[in-house]
Amino acid sequence: MEDEILKNEVVPEEEIEIEPEENEEIDIDDDKKVKKIKEKLNICQEEKAKYLDSWQRVQADFINYRKMQEERNAEFVKYSKQEILRELLPLMDAFEAAVGHFKETEGLKMMLVKILKENGVEVIETLGKQFDPHIHEAIKHIESDKPDEEIVEEVQKGYNLNGKILRIAIVKVSKQKK
C-alpha cells in the first residue's frame, strides 16, 4: 500500500536532484550538451515571445479594421439615400407652391414631409437667423432696419440629411440702411 502512495505522489521537476553515484562521473561533453540545449531553449522561447507578440498585434489590427469597416458601412447606409432624397426636394418645392393655390394638396405635402423626416431629412431654419455661408446662399441684399446679414426672406428651402447639408438654403439678407 505504501508503494501505491509513492507511485501516485507527484514531485515537481525542480525538486528532483540527480546526483551521480560514487562510481559515475559526469561527462564533460554531457555538460556542454546541456548548455547548448539550454541556449537553444532560450532562443526558442524568445522567438515564441516574438511570434506571440506579432500575432497579438495582427489580431488587434484586425479587430480595429473590422470596427472601422462596420462604421464605414453604417455611414454608407446612412447616406446612401442622399441622391434620391435630393431629387425629391424639387417635388417638395412644387408641393409647397401648390399648397398656396390648392388646399387639397396639403395632405400630399404632409405625406411627403413625413417620408423625408423618416429618412433623416430636416428643413434648415432660415428666417430671422444670421446668414451662414456654409448652409445659406445669399442672392440679394435688402436694405432693412434689421441687423446686417440677418435673413429676411427665403427663396428656396435648404435641407439637412442626418446632420449634413443635403441642399443649401437660398435666401435674401438684410443690409442696414445708411
Automatic annotation (TrEMBL):
One Pfam family, short name: GrpE
Subcellular localization: Cytoplasm
Main location (coarse class): cytoplasm
Stored InterPro entries: GrpE (IPR000740), GrpE_CC (IPR013805), GrpE_head (IPR009012)
One GO location term (cellular component): cytoplasm
PANTHER family in UniProt: GRPE PROTEIN (PTHR21237), GRPE PROTEIN HOMOLOG, MITOCHONDRIAL (PTHR21237:SF23)
Biological role: Participates actively in the response to hyperosmotic and heat shock by preventing the aggregation of stress-denatured proteins, in association with DnaK and GrpE. It is the nucleotide exchange factor for DnaK and may function as a thermosensor. Unfolded proteins bind initially to DnaJ; upon interaction with the DnaJ-bound protein, DnaK hydrolyzes its bound ATP, resulting in the formation of a stable complex. GrpE releases ADP from DnaK; ATP binding to DnaK triggers the release of the substrate protein, thus completing the reaction cycle.
Protein name stated in the entry: Protein GrpE
Native source organism of the sequence: Candidatus Portnoybacteria bacterium CG10_big_fil_rev_8_21_14_0_10_36_7
Lineage: Bacteria, Candidatus Portnoyibacteriota
